[in-house]
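Table S7 (text form). Paired inputs.
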Amino acid sequence: MDANELKRRYIAGERDFPAANLGKAKLIGALLAGVNLFAADLSGANLAKAKLWGANLGGANLAEANLTRANLSGANLHEANLRGAKLNFAKLYGANLTGACYDDSTRFSRGFDPISRNMRKL
């Protein structure tokens, strides 16, 4: 599946895309509120300014993904791989980040404390 197919199917009303392979997909500013991308491969994807509120990204591989200014409010990121991801200015209000892993190259907004959100450093 590529970014265009995902957007086309989402617009048609489909919301479930578990384990989808979207590595390096260009989804800048995409409206994907409430989408189910459980265990999906989004490594290296560009999701800058994407609207992902209420999305299920549990167990997803978001390594090296660009989530700058993405709206992840209320999203499930439980045990997601965020190593090397860019989360600068991302909206994470009410997001479940329990068990999500990050490393020294993961970029968060100033003042964000991953430990208080029960994230794991690898």
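Next pair, protein 2 of 2.
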Amino acid sequence: MSIRIDKGKCVRCGQCALVCPGGLIVQDEEKKAYIKYPKDCWGCAACLKECKVGAIKYFLGADIGGKGVYLYTLDEQDFLHWFIVNNDIQHRMTSNKRESNKY
């Protein structure tokens, strides 16, 4: 598993860098995010959930059926839309952020 950050979509908010538990995401001189050591990524997806513009893609490993499959999110106020892309076919799941952590 690994992440890739599209600097063209990055809006310089820095949220992904703030939530990365390994401190692997940093900002360049233009404040655009990038992952400093991709091989050290834990795969926790914290950055993915914080990115409001879908600039971060999370590639699934071949060991769990990935083979080019990736995941990204888009934030819409109270909802988080999860997109899984496989061979240009996109599947969407939506979670209500206010309800998702209720027990």
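The chain is about 10% helix and 35% strand.
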